[in-house]
UniProtKB/TrEMBL annotation:
Subunit note: Homotetramer.
Gene Ontology, cellular component aspect: mitochondrion
Name of the molecule in the record: Alanine--glyoxylate aminotransferase 2, mitochondrial
Cofactor(s) annotated in UniProt: pyridoxal 5'-phosphate
A GO BP entry: L-alanine catabolic process, by transamination
Lineage: Eukaryota, Metazoa, Ecdysozoa, Arthropoda, Crustacea
Pfam families: Aminotran_3 (PF00202)
Subcellular location: Mitochondrion
EC number(s) given by UniProt: 2.6.1.18, 2.6.1.40, 2.6.1.44
Amino acid sequence: EYDHVRKVRGDNLNPALVTHFKKPLLIHSGHMQWLFDHTGKRYLDLFGGIVTVSVGHCHPKVVAAVTDQMNKLWHTTNIYLHPKIHEYAERLTKTLPGDLKVVYFVNSGSEANDLAMLMARLYTGNFDIISLRNAYHGASPYTLGLTAHGTWKYNIANGFGVHHASNPDPYQGIWGGYRDSPVQSTRANESTVVDGVCSSSEKYIGQLEEVIKYSIPKGKVAAFFAESIQGVGGGVQFPLGYLKKAFDLVRANGGVCISDEVQSGFGRTGEHFWGFEGHGVVPDMVTMAKGMGNGFPLAAVVTTPAIAQTMSHALHFNTFGGNPMASAVGLSVLETLEEDKTQENCRVVGTYFLQELAKLRDEYPIVGDVRGKGLMIAMEMVLDKDSRTPLDATTMMEIWDSCKEHGVILGRGGFYGNVFRIKPPMCITQADVDFTVSVLRHVLEQTIN
Ligand code: PMP
């Protein structure tokens, strides 16, 4: 069955691409939330190409817009202008609050965060940057420093001037460590639904204060990076109030605050278009990618005119950033999100998904925590609920593989690799949720017996 998958496995591909899966999938086509392999078998795609397919695989409206642009103009570089880039920048900035009005188009999340680091250093005149221990912000030489988790590191010196503050993690505890977890934490969902400030955010902020005071020369900060909900880190949600306090603290020490909305943006959280809005903060810069292009390489930094001004000291240049094709895709994604009422679908279907997964959590000892907002959902797997010890990698992979065999593709992540991530194209339905839950129930039953 996997014969022609084997044929494409070879020395001329990045080994990480071909060694990861025992039974690799060969995907031939996609439509909305569905993927089809070489045999024609259908899979419900609950990971959307790592949180990237936002409105749906080959969404007809996006296909039409791209085809139209393809016949007009593909590329000019950003030394010429074209109408689509204006239209797109205008529409994109309308979704953002405050003074966030200047867009720099690039091609990937890593590039966006690279540029945000540069701008923060130029604007503040400071060098030191803080990110969180469980964060993922990219894999370029600059952003690899921001990304804290060892999985992505190559053990060479990088990330000069980047410091990591311990991560708030309402499920695993204040230090994010299950072994010495000193805090009997609340469920993450409670901390997001409670209106007001979660009392435990005080404790989390102490860590950040220490980093500023003792690790950064003279306490002068250039920037603080945070995802509104940690994506690769396994759907970790900060207690309400944490980001607000963190932003205040960073700004009081000269830094700017950067929200990485690469995963949590474009309505995915259901409640708001941007994840940071759920925390009641307005960042100085927003970085975005993934869902922005529905699979087309497209990313951006949006910032204030004052911060953008510092970029006028030299010429910022990006060959492909915001080219006519990218702008046409981005614009049609924004239009489609609105026309299809995607954010509302995330809210309704996401809430239902969380409710149904919570039943599995109550039924099965290895489902430790179910959390999320909208269609940014995480299911943390444990050996048992008391110790919260992460489920081992082999069992995680068996569950993942078995779900796939039954036609459901999940994502994986988390600090200990023990979190299933559900971030599908945002067009899934309640019937898809029912299908997923029935597959998961069957697979979990097999796993524990
Ligand atoms: N930020 C976040 C929150 C991400 O999840 C990712 C990718 N997983 C990136 C940045 C980097 O994006 P890219 O892979 O497009 O460089």
